[in-house]
Amino acid sequence: MPFEPLASDFYSYESTLLTEREREEIARLRAWLEADVKPIIGGYWERAEFPMQIVQPLADLGVLSYAWDETRTFENSAVFRGFVALELARVDASVGTFVGVQNGLATGSISIAGSKEQREEWIPKLASGEVIGAFGLTEPFSGSDSARGLRTTARREGDEWVLNGAKRWIGNATFSDITIIWAKDEADGQVKGFIVPTTTPGYTATKIEGKISLRPVQNADITLTDVHVPESLRLQNANSFRDTAAVLRATRAEVAWAAVGTAVGAYEAAVAYAKQREQFGRPIGSHQLIQEHLVNGLGNITASLGMVVRASQLQDAGELRDEHSALAKAYATSRMRETVAWAREACGGNGIVLEYDVARFFADAEALYSYEGTREMNTLIVGRAITGEAAFV
């Protein structure tokens, strides 16, 4: 499959940084997304349904196994994985979110905080699509303050743990086979992680209705009522919120990449529209103000791409810190929000209908702007690094 650089990659990051094999992988993924996902996703977005038929092809393409030693078929970089996240989001942010939950948060929790036996048992199943995962951290009354405000509890009873509490906004949770549940140990007050099969008695997941963003993503409210989990399903290396934070650190940079991809998707749709839509006897792309919108969007994409590339390079070098991921996420999502607005404006009234794609990216940007840490929380993480002073409360 020949690799064609994206026109929106104005400074040629892909061609410069990716190996030949990685470019081939990107080309294969792009061809499948364009042929099998792009033509159908608008309908699924409108119906608020997830296209389950894409899970196996994603697994077959290797997208669900790029990051983890137990499953990956060849060495690849965090930069490459970032471009995969961009590629998914430039076609549809909901598909990118599904992969981010499955591969980054669920599989990542087991890879980072699980035992060798847990990794060997679960990661190949998640990578093959045999098992669908979800990640349960956010709660109805605890989002940004999860480090201290977690209310879900875990109580040790012999060789089992009993979980009680509630989670909210949990992606994939209406159809997941397992959910990683983070709960506070009643004995020592520390946060611990558990692999919870969703068929366990006392576990229920209810779809959140009425969303205006990422509509195909099946977010759920989860309730846990005396859910019994064996010690063998406790993540053996998750002993405090620091271990939870390690998972988030590894995935937050890829959310920034997804934000760049969402901006690219809106920008590309706006460019295509500007070339074919005629007003006053000529394509609107020949009008100065439309060109300004497009140039502003391209500038945001290019600046954000430079930042996320560097964050992933730091990750590859083992030097990525919380503030690096936080700055990339806060900046890239803010610039994404501007870019999708300019793209929508360039399309006029047609910018609010699904037919021209921009409306979907415009709406989906709002979810990416908030999840995996709001702009405000990520700003305070960076502010603490700059000043040495925590300003969270």
From TrEMBL:
Entry superkingdom: Bacteria
Boundaries of every Acyl-CoA dehydrogenase/oxidase N-terminal domain copy: 19-130
GO MF annotations, alphabetized: acyl-CoA dehydrogenase activity; flavin adenine dinucleotide binding
GO biological process terms on file: fatty acid beta-oxidation
Requisite cofactors: FAD
Acyl-CoA oxidase/dehydrogenase middle domain location: 134-227
Location of the Acyl-CoA dehydrogenase/oxidase C-terminal domain: 246-386
Swiss-Prot/TrEMBL keywords: FAD, Flavoprotein, Oxidoreductase
PANTHER family linked: ACYL-COA DEHYDROGENASE, ACYL-COENZYME A OXIDASE
Family stated for the protein in its record: Belongs to the acyl-CoA dehydrogenase family.
Protein name (database record): Acyl-CoA dehydrogenase
Organism: Agromyces agglutinans
